[in-house]
Amino acid sequence: MNKRLATFIDYKTGGNQKEFARLLGWSPQYLHKMLKGDSMGIQPVISLLQTFPELNARWLILGEGVMVDSVRNYVLNMLRLERYIPVMTREELQALEAGKTDFDSCTIEAWEKRLEQKESVIRQRFDAAYKRQSEYADNIKSDHRETVL
Questions:
Q1: 34 and 5 in contact (C-beta within 8 Å)?
Q2: Nearest CA-CA partner of 31 in 11, 10, 2
Q3: Are the C-beta atoms of residues 103 and 92 closer than 8 Å to each other?
Q4: pTM given for the model
Q5: Which of 14, 35, 47, 101 is in Cβ range 3.0-4.6 Å of 77 for a Cys bridge?
Q6: Over the stretch 46-78, which tens digit does the pLDDT of each residue have?
């Protein structure tokens, strides 16, 4: 299992063990111990699977199947979530960066509300700017008429 973990680290972070440990909230020393140890306990496996939902548990534990499950679905979920990036909290962005794509419906609803609010503010600013521009144009026309007459 240690060799498969090393393979997944290569896939996820290009072999950067320090970055991989950071994504899991582990120390680099703890990860090194996992990679060099004879066996890995259940808790690190659970942490890996919770942090990286695309990781195939059967592959990690038994070496059967493919390393990453449903790559297509994972990519589609990431694309679906991309529109919410401007309204995500720091913690949500970190979870997304770590590969989490299965956010609950309450979180997505909160993002929708934040996105609507942000778009509403942008529309209000645009409308106000357009109104000022129209008023300015009307004033210029009026001034021009007065100077011509």
A1: yes
A2: 2
A3: yes
A4: 0.48
A5: 101
A6: 999 999 888 888 899 998 888 886 666 677 778
Tally of CB atoms within 10 A around 17: 17
| pLDDT confidence of residue 89 | 93
- Cα 5 to Cα 26: distance, rounded to the nearest angstrom: 14
- For the chain, the distance separating the N- and C-terminal CA atoms, rounded to the nearest angstrom, is 89
